[in-house]
Inverse folding.
């Protein structure tokens, strides 16, 4: 099933991973920690689970243990500060999904209109150019003030950061539809709605999907930062919470999970993209 | 003026220059008519506005002045009455071959059922020899097959008139030959009225009832209308045995190589009535020695009434 190249690449990946773990182990290896004084031990007990892990950067074994602990029970819920990684990820994915969906609803029709009308394009272009480079987190205070809800504000931040790549790519894709195809539709007297859905949309779909893929990537980057700010739930909050606990193995575990989920999301849009791409 | 099926009267096209001032018109004062069921080819050098004329007939472009009247109605905008075959085939790559043709047929007859549309389209695809490939995507077809789909699509809407913009320009000679034969067959079977741009003199002689010769642009005009007097049932394999063939061919080539320039621009050396360009029948002229001074235009048997 695997090609020869694929097998070789897989082996090489494994080797790189082992070297990485090995180097990490060596770098974090240290002699037996000096015996803790009675006071320190008491302090550690008071501080709870995190304090025991303050002895320098955690070695792979500790991080591995964190993986096992969290993945063996991903959906537990022991109050607001102690939820399983599955629940946290679900909260983040829900925010990203909702914000992204709202952005799709706005960006695709608006992008269509901008792409079809040079007038609209010229009129809206200055706004888009100014709004596009604003860090989505810069909107956070305004969102919190006017929406008065941290959860909704998080969703708004995702909405605003997903909007621009989709809007611009949709407009570009629609404007760049081959003149010949439009002319075919014109000579066939195709009605506007049918033209939009059967000619322009399929023709621009690969570009639109590229915009959606970029948007989803950015949304997943931004949600972590946004949740660190608004707190409460989500994988970003989890990272910040474990940092406050000084539980670095948990932070590393969460970082790895963020990467993993981001990859899955990207692959998802990658396969969607493949679905609508046409060969000429 | 007698009533033609399609008449073009006083057509002119001016493209604005980059600095906003008007250029000299690409072509000016173009008059010609096409009868029902006639196959007309237009030949001329690049830049004489052939494609613009075709686009005006199709309704895709507006002329700067002049009118086109087809079947008693002025041509304003594109219409299902005129099928267009584009130079670059213009198939939609996300649809199958059948899907492309069905898209056109559905536009023509929105009330038809899918089964009826598919059956109708399959008939036309079989006519151009693509019955075996109807479920393929255009990307899986060769250039010649793609152009056949384009032709089937134009025929499938059963237009009053067919416009072909150099449809075989991008094909190799062998493929071009077979598709020319197929086009000829379908045109004869459906007695379709056709207007076609070509650069290929042999192609024009094979397919056309008459050939419109354009002088060079800017200020291009119709220099001559050549009637192809060979019998209609000519074939690619046989037509060069007809003594008329070389007379017509020489006449056309001679025009393109030597005479098209002398009509150009304001220094047109030839007295010329744009409303009634000379109609010539070189095929019927008796053999005569080649003209010694080839730059001097020689009209053979003008038959205008």
């Amino acid at each position: 099933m695997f090609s020869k190249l694929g097998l070789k690449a897989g082996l090489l990946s494994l080797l790189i991973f082992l070297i990485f773990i090995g180097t990490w182990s060596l770098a974090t290896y240290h002699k037996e920690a000096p015996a803790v004084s009675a006071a320190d031990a008491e302090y550690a007990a008071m501080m709870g689970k995190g304090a025991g892990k303050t002895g320098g950067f955690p070695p792979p074994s500790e991080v591995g243990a964190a993986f096992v602990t969290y993945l063996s029970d991903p959906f537990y819920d022991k109050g607001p500060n102690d939820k399983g990684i599955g629940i946290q990820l679900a909260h983040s994915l829900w925010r990203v999904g909702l914000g992204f969906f709202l952005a799709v609803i706005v960006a695709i029709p608006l992008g269509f209109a901008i792409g079809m009308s040079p007038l609209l394009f010229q009129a809206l272009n200055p706004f888009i150019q100014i709004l596009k480079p604003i860090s989505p987190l810069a909107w956070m205070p305004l969102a919190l003030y006017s929406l008065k809800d941290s959860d909704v504000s998080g969703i708004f931040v995702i909405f605003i950061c997903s909007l621009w790549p989709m809007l611009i790519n949709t407009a570009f894709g629609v404007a760049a539809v081959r003149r010949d195809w439009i002319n075919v539709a014109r000579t066939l007297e195709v009605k506007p709605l049918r033209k939009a859905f059967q000619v322009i949309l399929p023709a621009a779909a690969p570009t639109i999907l590229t915009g959606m893929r970029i948007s989803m990537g950015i949304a997943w980057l931004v949600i972590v930062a946004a949740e660190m700010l608004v707190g409460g739930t989500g994988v970003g909050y989890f990272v910040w919470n474990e940092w406050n606990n000084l539980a670095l193995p948990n932070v590393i575990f969460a970082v790895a999970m963020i990467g993993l989920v981001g990859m899955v999301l990207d692959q998802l849009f990658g396969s969607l993209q493949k679905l609508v791409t046409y060969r000429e | 003026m007698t009533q033609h099926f399609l008449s073009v009267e006083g057509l002119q096209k001016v493209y604005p220059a980059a600095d906003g001032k008007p250029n000299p018109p690409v072509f000016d004062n173009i008059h010609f008519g096409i009868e029902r069921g006639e196959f007309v080819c237009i030949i001329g050098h690049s830049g004489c506005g052939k494609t613009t004329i075709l686009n005006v007939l199709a309704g895709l472009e507006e002329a700067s002045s002049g009118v086109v009247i087809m079947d008693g109605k002025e041509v304003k905008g594109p219409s299902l009455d005129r099928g267009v075959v584009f130079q670059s085939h213009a198939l939609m790559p996300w649809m199958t071959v059948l899907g492309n043709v069905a898209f056109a047929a559905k536009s023509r007859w929105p009330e038809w059922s899918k089964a009826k549309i598919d059956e109708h389209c399959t008939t036309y695809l079989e006519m151009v020899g693509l019955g075996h490939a109807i479920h393929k995507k255009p990307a899986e077809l060769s250039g010649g097959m793609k152009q056949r789909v384009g032709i089937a699509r134009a025929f499938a809407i059963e237009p009053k008139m067919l416009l072909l913009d150099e449809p075989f320009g991008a094909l190799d000679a062998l493929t071009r030959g077979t598709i020319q034969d197929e086009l000829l067959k379908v045109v004869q079977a459906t007695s379709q009225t056709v207007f076609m741009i070509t650069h290929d003199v042999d192609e024009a002689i094979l397919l056309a009832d008459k050939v419109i010769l354009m002088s060079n642009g800017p200020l291009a005009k119709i220099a001559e209308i050549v009637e192809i007097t060979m019998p209609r049932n000519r074939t690619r394999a046989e037509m060069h045995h007809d003594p008329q063939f070389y007379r017509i061919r020489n006449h056309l080539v001679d025009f393109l190589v030597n005479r098209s320039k002398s009509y150009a621009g304001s220094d047109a050396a030839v007295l010329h009535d744009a409303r009634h360009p000379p109609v010539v029948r070189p095929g019927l002229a008796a053999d005569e020695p080649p003209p010694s001074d080839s730059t001097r235009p020689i009209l053979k048997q003008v038959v205008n009434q």
In short: Residues 85-276 of chain A form a domain with the MetI-like fold fold (CATH 1.10.3720.10). Chain A touches chain B at residues 178, 180-181, 183-184, 186-190, 194, 198-199, 202-203, 205, 276, 278-280 (CB under 8 Å).
